[in-house]
Design goal:
With 266 residues, the protein is of the alpha/beta class. It contains twelve helices and six strands. The chain has two domains: 151 residues, Class I glutamine amidotransferase (GATase) domain (Rossmann fold), CATH 3.40.50.880; 112 residues, Homeodomain-like (Arc Repressor Mutant, subunit A).
Amino acid sequence: MRDGFFTLTGVVGIEAADTADTLIVPNRPDTEVPRRPAVLDAVRRAHARGARLVGFCSGAFTLAEAGVLDGRRATAHWQWAEDFRARFPAVRLEPDVLFVDDGDILTAAGSAAALDLGLHIVRRDFGAEVAVSVSRRLVFAAHRDGGQRQFVERPVPDVPDESLAPLLAWAQERLDEPLTVGGLAARAAVSPATLHRRFRAQLGTTPLAWLNGERVGLACRLIERGEERLDVVARRSGLGSAANLRARLRRATGLSPSAYRRRFGP
């Protein structure tokens, strides 16, 4: 298929949707134009047989047209949120997040958020170590929680020394230490309130949520590398206790440490 700038080869027909384990529904510029019945039927059949459906950006409109999002959580680009709600009131739209994982149906808010969701799927299927490797190849953040806001107040800091990068790098080397929001603020020579505002503006999350996410990610990598002692994993990742490790790992991945080890361990 040729469209001016490049050529796509080896493109399969829509019949491949009937055997795919994961069906990707891409973005579409013409959200007002209904999809072809054959496309909507393929989505419905895939959903009915238990395939995983993934909608990128305005692909959520296609999923909603197929009726598979009724009563389900989903997201879409914030520019289309009002139109989406008006057309599909039965969908539980969450317009302020990067992506939504609702089990067998996942949706991303935009083009960059599609990368976030893609890495989330890689992490869910193959573990944190592989996801980190893929993110390095992409030169993309290894993990941005889906609950983060779609857009930040100031994507590029007005003042260079307000960047959080040095603080984040410093903290990532010390996750096993008793880091606190107050300690991070002191390291950055700002008040906790100022640090909170900068995290919200630059990362779309809070200092504590970022810190917990980094620690859970490190715990996952330690388990994947073969560490079987939960107390050691908890201590080295800064999660403190095996009980806290179990609770946070289940909250983040839906798996217990033993189940995570069986699925992703060496």
